[in-house]
Amino acid sequence: MPRDPQGPAPASETRGAIRVDLQNIADMVAAKSRVLDVGCGDGALLDYLVHFKQVDGRGIELSQAGVNACVGIGLSVIQGDADTDLADYPDDAFDYAVLSQTLQATRNPAGVLDHLVRIAGRAIVSFPNFGHWHMRWHLLTRGTMPVTRSLPAAWYETPNIHLCTIRDFLEFCRTKGILIERAIAIDSLGKAAPIRSWRLANLTGEQGLFLLSRR
User: Fold this and answer.
1) pTM given for the model
2) Mind listing the domains of the chain with CATH numbers?
3) Which residues contact 64 (CB under 8 A, 6 or more apart)?
4) What is the mean pLDDT of residues 78-102?
5) Adjacency order of strands within the sheet including 120-128
6) Predicted confidence band at 184 (pLDDT cuts at 50, 70, 90)?
7) What angle do the packed helices 44-52 and 20-28 form, to 10 degrees?
8) Bridge partners for 77 per DSSP
9) R_g over Cα of the chain
10) Nearest CA among 103, 65, 105, 137 for reference residue 210
11) Are the beta carbons of 14 and 37 closer than 8 angstroms?
């Protein structure tokens, strides 16, 4: 049936594109699944998943401003801290738990990841790669902490307290017995490619993106 020109426009016409890294996360999520977005910010990813993939989406966000923004567009989001509040969720409560660009800001990243793979069948985690060639070159030539698009704050203002490289994360998952189902590196131009060589990905990947599950 043709849409009434006087009626509301569908979501696909009223919502713009999301960031490249968020789009890659969304592509990993099955339609109509149960999703918990941890550190959901202003709700851009969660809103996309709800309207374009019809997920049953929930969010947890530390900042009150972020919670207000999410609730303002009709999302089910509560204020909470990933380091302490994930323990309250039961096992297998969701199909996917998403932690986008937040791992490096947690106080206990190992504990947070343990909870993610406990409360969901699969976890999707992304983070800035501190092994990227630009980071190395900046440290080598300037001797100061880099300020980049993926790490935009100065060292004394940054919320990031546990920076890591793609190789660090691969080795961490191995030692923790976490299965990596998909591994993607996203370069500075936004191009995503499967990680086949950690050495190359560690140099050229500005961000790492991983689909994880329990063994």
Assistant:
1) 0.89
2) 11-214 (3.40.50.150)
3) 79
4) 97
5) 77-79, 56-61, 34-38, 94-100, 120-128, 207-214, 178-186, 192-194
6) very high
7) 40
8) 59
9) 18
10) 103
11) no
